[in-house]
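Aim 2 progress. For 50S ribosomal protein L35, the working sequence is reproduced below.
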Amino acid sequence: MDPDTLFVIGLALGVLSIPAVVSSISKGERPRIATITLMIAGAMVVWAISNKTGGYPIESIPKVIAKVISSFT
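Predicted structure tokens for this construct:
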């Protein structure tokens, strides 16, 4: 799979799992599934960064997201 696609999917999973972690903690429950999802998202992002030559500079992240989203449409 393309590192750009994995990077964007990892970012999306990470962003979406943060509210689940906060919700579970506020209810007094253990955030098991949300934590596992967050770790998977982190692994996807790390794998994408390590397999992309030069990595992902901060200023290129919006361009990468736009490129991946436009490739799906």
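Helices lie at 3-26, 32-51, 61-72. This observation will guide construct design in the next reporting period.
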